[in-house]
TrEMBL record, chains A, B, C, D, E:
GO molecular function, one term: cobalt ion transmembrane transporter activity
Family of this protein: Belongs to the CorA metal ion transporter (MIT) (TC 1.A.35) family.
One Gene Ontology term, aspect cellular component: plasma membrane
Organism the protein comes from: Methanococcoides vulcani
Protein name per UniProt: Magnesium transport protein CorA
Gene coding for it: corA
C-alpha cells in the first residue's frame, strides 16, 4: 500500500506532445477489439494489425474500438493520428498517471477515469487508467491490464438487451462509465465488510494487528478518495456541458451515474468517520486497559510494600530489640499487618479503585 | 450498528432500467391503499389487485395511492407504466439504497427520502426508503416495512381537519414530507436523552461502557447525518424550483419543512460537538485518574523502598557489624527511618503531590 | 448544561398552523404593554384585556405592543388574527424552539431571535425566544420570561433621547435587535472573564476541576454559536432585502448591528481556539507531571532495589557463607552499595533525568 | 496574553450615535498635527486648539490631519461635525474595539485597521485601533497611543521623496495603510524568530517551559489572525470598489498592499501548522521519554525482584531448611540467581527492549 | 528547515517603487543570456554589458532574455526602464520573497513562481523566486542562483525540437512554466520515496528518529504547499484571462500545466493525510509497547511482591514464632508460595494479560 501514492518519474524537460509510456510496462501484446453495431447489425472482430481499425472511422454504425494495453506507444500514436486526436491527449493516454478529467474538443470528448481492482495476493487496491474518446460515431477506449470489467457491456451489445443497440455512441460511453462506477461499489463493499469485521474484533478482542488494519483501511480510503473525488467533476461536466456529442436522452442516464458517484463519496466519508471513531475507541480501550493494569500493580504493591517493610524491621539483628522477646510479639505484628492491609483496602474502596 | 453503512451488492453490468429489488426482502404481501378526496368527498379503499388503482389516474379529485412493500417488482412496474413513470425512476423505487434526492420530470416530480425508526430490540436506528411521485392530480408513495408514520395524515384527511382537504396534491406531498421530518425530531430527542444520561454518568461514575456508548452515539449521528444532509437539498429544490406541480401557497409550508431540516442538522452538529467534548472529558478524566494512581504508587513505594533497604541492612548476618551491638542501635535506626520518611513527605508536599 | 441542546417534543402528525405552546410553561399571567408615540406625543399603557390593543392597528403613530409570556395560546391567536398574521407565524411564536430567522410577508416582516441570560443559581446560560412582527406602523414583540432587556429602549422612548421618537417602526425594531445583540456582549464578557480566570488557574495550579470548567465553557460556546450563527443571516437579510418596511436611513444602523454580530462570532471562534489551546496545555502539563512522577519513582526504585537485593543476600542464613566471617565484610558491602548507587546516579545524569 | 480577547464592556441600552470612549483611557493630552501639501508647497503645524484645523477642510492642497489620542470625546465630535462625518462613524472612532472594516459614504470613505506593537515588558502583542477618513481633499487619521509608525510617511512628505507629494489624498491613505501592513511583517518576523528558537530548543533539550512558549505563540497567532483576516477584506474592497475617492493609478498600489496582507495570512497559517507540528513532536517526544523511563524501571525491577525473593527465602529462620546446611548451598544459589538474571536479560533482548 | 518560513526584514517606511534587493546576496556576477529565434533563425549570446540587450526589445524574432542573479539592483532597473516595466514590478523582482502571482499590464504580463531544489548537504528544500515578463515579442526571465532548470528548454530551442521554434513568446513562457512545474514532481517523488522508506521502517522497527523524520516531512509539505497553492491560481488566471499576449493555441498547453499543478496539490494532500495516519500509527504503536512493558512489570511485581512478603515474615527474629519450629514449616511455606503464584497467574490469564 505504501507505494500507492508514488508519483511516476516525469520526463522533465521533454517537449510536450512527445509520447512516452509511463506506468507499469507489460510484456503482453496489446489487444485491439472492435464492435460495430446499430439496431439491426452487429459485427465484432479482434484486429490483427492497426490498419484493420482505420475504416471504422467512417462507419455509419456506432463503432467501439477497445485497446487493451497502452505501452506500445507507436500503435497508440498511429491510431490517434488517423482519428485526428490532439498530441497532448495521446500523451495523456500513454502517460497513465493522469488525474480523472474530461476535455471537450471540437471533434471529440476525451475522458479519463480510474478503474479499481482488489489484488488478493498483495491485499491492496490497484488503480488503472481508462481513457475514453467519444466521437460523433465512434468510441475508443484504452485500458491497461485489469481483466475486463467491460464484458457485461459487450454482452448487452451482443444480445441486444436493453436499449443499448438503439442508442448512439454517447449511450455506449455512458454504459462504460456506468460499469466503471458500479465497480467502485464492489470495492466499497469489500472495504465495508472489512470494517464490519474489524468492528466486531474491536469490541471482542482488539490486538495491535487490529490497529494496523484500521490504518491500512484508512490509507485505502485516502487512495480511493483521491481518484473518485475528481471523477465527480468529470461526470458532472459531461452532464451539464451542452455538447454536440451527448444527446439529451443520454443526459438523464449520466445524472444517474453522477448520483452513484455522490453516493460513493458519501460512503467513503462515512467510512472515514467510522474508522476515526474506531481508532479513537481502540486507543481509549487501550488506555482503559493500561489504567486497569496500573491499578492492579498499585493495589498489590502499595499493600505489600509496607507489610514487607514491617517484616524487614523484625528481621533485623540488633541485640537489643525488646519486641522480639515479647511473648505476644509475633501475633501482635500479624494483627498490625492485617490492620494496615485493611486500611489500605478501605482507602482504595473509597477511591473507587476496587 | 456496524452494518448500517453497508452498501448493497449492486447489480454490476446489468442494463439500466432493469427492475431488481435491492433491500431487505419481506415475505408480507404488499398492501395498496387509495384515498381519493376533495373538499366535500372522501373515499378510502384497500386495493385487492392492481387494476383497481388504474382509474384514479384520471380522477378529478386528489388521489393518494400508498404502496407498502416494494419488493414485488412486477407490481411496481405495472403501476409505473400505467402512470407513465420513467424506467430509471422505477428502478430507483425498488432499489432501496438511494440517496435522498428530487427529480423534476415533465409530468411529475420524483422525491426520495429516508424514514427513520428506532429498533428497541437491537438498539439501533433503521432507515427505510420512502419514494413519492407527485403528479398533477395524484400522489403515489412507496414505503418499505416500518409501521405507518403516515397515519396522522390519513386521520386529518378523514376528519377533514385543517386545510388539507381544501388543497391539492402538492399540499398532500408536503404533509407526507412534514410527517417524515417530524419523525427525525423524535429520533433526535431519543439521542438527546441518551446524551444527557451519558453526561450525568460521565460526571458521576464513568465506566468503559460509557466510552462505548459515546462511540455508539457518534456512529448513529454519522448515520443520521448521511441521510438527513441530502434531504436539506431535496426540500430546498422543491421550494425554490418554479414547478407547475407546486403552488405558491404550498411553497411557504415547504419553507417551514426546510427550516425544520436545518434545525435537525444544527442539532446533529451540536450533538457531534458535544459528544466530542464528552469524549475528550472522558479521556482527560481517565488520564487524571491514572495520574492519581501513579502518585499513590509512587508515594508509597518511594517512602517504603528506602526504609526496607535500611531494615535489610541490619538484617544482614555479618559477624562484625558494630551497630548491632550498640545499646541504642534499634531506636536510632527507628529515628533514622522516621526522618527519611518525613523528608520524603516534605519533598512530595513541595512537589504539590500531597 | 446537559439539557441545553434538548429538542422539545414535537407535535408529530398535528396539522400545521395548529397553535400548541412548546416551551417552559409559566404560571404567571401574560403581560401586554403598549407604547404609542410620535415626535410629539407619547402614550404608554398596560392592557388589561386584549381588546384594548386592537385600536392600535390603525393608529397613525408608531405603536409598540410587547407581549411578555407566550404560553396563553388563545391570546396570541386573537391578536394574530386581528393584525392579519399568518397561522404558521403564530405557530412559530408560541412554539419557542425556533431557529433564528426572518420571513418577509406582504404586510409585515417576521423576525425570530434568541435572548440570552446567565442563570446564577444553576450556573448555566438560558436562551429565550423573542419574536418581532414589524408592520407598516406597528411593532409587536413577544418574549418569554427573562426580565426585561428592552427597558433601556423604553427609557429612550419615554425621555425622547436620541433620534428614536423621530423615526418609524423600523428604527424601533432596530433598537430592539440592537439591545438583544448588545446583550450577547455581556454574555461573552462573562465567558471571557471565566476564560481569563481559568487561564491563570491553569498556569498556577491546575486541578481536575479546571478541566471540567474548560469543558463546561466549551459547551456554552457550542450553545451560543448555535443561536448566534443564524442571527447573522437574519440581520444580513434585513439589511440587504429591499423592503417597504425598512427605510434606507435605518439600513445603516442595521449594518452596525450586523458588524456587532460578526464581532461576536469572531470572538466566539477565538474563544473556541483558545479553549482548545488551553485543553491541550492542560493535557500536556498533566502528561509532563506524570513524567515527573514516573521519573521520581524510577530513580528511587532502581537505586534501592539492587541495594536491597545485596542486603538480602547477606541476610541469608547459609551456614557456609565466607563473606560473613570476613572482618571487613560489612564495610566492603557498604562500599559496594555506595558504588552501585553512584553508578546509577551517574547513569541517570547521563540520561538527563536529574 | 490572557486578557487579549477581552470584549470591552459595551454600553448596553445607550442610544446609537452617543459618543462614549471605550478603550484604555490615557491621561495625555490628545495631539493634533496637520500637514498640508501639494507638489510645490508643504506646511506642517501642531494644532493648539481645534479651530486651527477647520480651515483645512476647504484647502486646495491635500491636508492630512492626524489625531493622536481618541479619548477626548468632545474634540472628536467637534471635528467630526465640522467635516460632516456621520455620528455612527464618530462612535466607532472613539469606541476602539471595532473589527477592521471599510465603509463607503457619499463624501468620504471610513477605514478601520489595527496597528500592532510588541510590548517588551509584558512580552505580549498590543493592538490599537487606527481610523482613517479619506475625503476628496483631506485625510483624517485617528490613533491611540503607540509611538508613531506614521513617521516614515511624514519624512517622505517633508523631503518630497518618491511620488507622494505629486499624488492626491488617496495615495496618502494608501501610504498609511502600507506602513501599517509593513508593521505586521515586523511582528511576524519576531514570532518567526521565536519559532526558530523554540524549534532548536525542541530538538535539543525540551522543557515544560518550551510547551508553554509554544502555547503562548499559538495564542498570539489566534490574536493576530483575528485582526488581520478582516483587514484582507478591507483592502480588497478599497481596491475593487469604483470610488470617486480612489484614482486608478492608486489602485495598483492598493493591490500591492493586498498582496502583502495575503502573504501575512499565508505566513500566519504556515506558522500555525508548524506550531501544531511542533506541539505534536513535543508530546511524542515526551511520550517516548516516558517509554524509556518505564523500560529502565521495568528491566531493573523485573530482574531484581525475583532475585530478592530468592534471597528472602534463604533469609527465613525455619529450623529445618536442609539447603542452609549444604556446603555448596551458597554458591548454588548465586548460580541460580545469575541464571535467572541472564534469562531475564535474554527475554528483554528478544523483546528488543535492550 | 526551521528557517524556511522566515519572513525577510521588510523595508518599513520606504517609498514604494524603491528597488532594494531582499534575499540571499550572492557575490557572483549576474549573468545575462539572450536567445533570439524564429522558425529559421537562431542566435544565442551572453551579454557582457546591459546595452547589448537593448536592441532585442524591437527584434522581429522572439527574444528570450534570461537574467541569472537579481541582487545587482541597478542592472535590473536599467533593463526594466528600457523595456517599460512598472517600478512596482521591478521592486517585486528584486524583493525575492513574493508570493506566486500574475499581473496583467497593458504591454506585458508579469508572472512570479517559485523554483524548488533539494539541498543534499543540509537535507532541506530550497525555494527560489523566478520572475517572468511576457511581452509581445520578448520574454525576460529572472532567476536567483539554482543551477539552471531551464536548460532543457534551451536545448529544444537550439535543436529546434518539437513545436517551440514555430511558436511565439507565449509558448516560450509556457515552456518555462512547464519546466518549473515538472520540477515539482521531482521534489514530490523524493518526498514520496522518503515516505515509503519511513512506512517500512514504521512497521519494522520504529525509533524516535522515525518520529522526527515524519515531522520533518510534514514541515516540508507545509513549505511546498505554501508555494504551490498560489501557483495554481497563477496558471489558472493565465489560461482563463483573455489576453493579447496569449494565443488560444497556447491556452490548451497552459491547461495541461494547470492539470499538473492540481495533481501536485492532490499528491501533497494525500501525503499529508498519509503522514498523519503514520504519525497516529507511530503513537498508537508506542502506546501499545508501553502497555506491554507495563504488563510485564506488573505481572512480575505482583507475583513476587507477596511472595517476598511471606519470605520476609519468616525471616523475622521473634523468639516465639511457632511455625519456625514445625518440622514441615519450610515445605508448607513453599507450597503456600507456589499456590499464591499460581492463583496470580490464573487471575492474569482471566484478564487476558497472558
Amino acid at each position: 500500500m505504501g507505494k500507492m501514492v508514488h508519483v511516476g518519474s516525469r520526463k522533465v524537460g521533454v517537449a510536450p506532445g512527445t509520447l512516452i509510456h509511463i506506468g507499469k510496462k507489460h510484456l503482453t501484446e496489446p489487444k485491439i477489439t472492435v464492435i460495430d453495431y446499430n439496431v439491426d447489425n452487429f459485427q465484432e472482430l479482434v484486429a490483427e494489425n492497426i490498419e484493420e481499425v482505420y475504416p471504422f472511422k467512417d462507419s455509419e454504425n456506432v463503432s467501439w474500438i477497445n485497446i487493451h494495453g497502452v505501452h506500445q506507444v507507436d500503435l497508440i500514436e498511429k491510431i490517434g493520428i488517423h482519428f485526428g486526436i490532439h498530441s497532448l491527449v495521446l500523451e495523456d493516454i500513454v502517460h497513465t498517471d493522469q488525474r480523472p478529467k474530461v476535455e471537450f474538443f471540437d471533434s471529440y470528448i476525451y475522458i479519463v477515469l480510474k478503474m479499481l481492482q482488489y489484488d488478493k495476493d498483495k491485499e491492496e487496491l490497484i488503480a488503472e487508467q481508462v481513457s475514453i474518446i467519444l466521437g460523433s460515431n465512434f468510441v475508443i477506449s484504452y485500458q491497461e491490464v485489469i481483466e475486463d470489467t467491460f464484458d457485461p457491456v459487450r454482452d448487452r451489445l451482443r444480445s441486444s438487451k436493453g436499449r443499448i443497440r438503439k442508442q448512439g455512441p454517447d449511450y455506449l460511453a455512458y454504459a462504460l462509465l456506468d460499469s466503471i462506477v458500479d465497480n467502485y461499489f464492489v470495492m466499497l463493499e469489500k472495504i465495508g465488510e472489512n470494517i464490519d469485521a474489524l468492528d466486531d474484533e474491536l469490541l471482542d478482542k482488539p490486538t495491535p494487528k487490529t490497529l494496523e488494519d484500521i490504518h491500512h483501511l484508512k490509507k485505502e480510503l485516502i487512495f480511493l478518495r483521491k481518484f473518485i473525488w475528481p471523477s465527480r467533476e468529470v461526470v458532472s461536466s459531461l452532464q451539464r456541458e451542452e455538447s454536440f456529442f451527448i444527446k439529451e436522452s443520454t443526459s438523464i442516464f449520466l445524472k444517474d451515474v453522477y448520483d452513484h458517484i455522490i453516493q460513493v463519496m458519501d460512503t467513503i466519508e462515512s467510512y472515514r468517520d467510522i474508522l476515526s471513531t474506531m481508532l479513537d475507541l481502540y486507543l481509549s480501550t487501550a488506555s482503559n486497559k493500561m489504567n486497569e493494569i496500573m491499578k492492579v500493580l498499585t493495589i498489590i504493591a502499595t499493600i505489600f510494600i509496607p507489610l514487607t517493610f514491617i517484616a524487614g524491621i523484625y528481621g533485623m539483628n540488633f541485640e537489643y530489640m525488646p519486641e522480639l522477646k515479647w511473648h505476644l510479639g509475633y501475633p501482635v505484628i500479624w494483627a498490625l499487618m492485617i490492620t494496615v492491609a485493611l486500611v489500605m483496602l478501605a482507602y482504595f474502596r473509597k477511591l473507587k479503585w476496587i
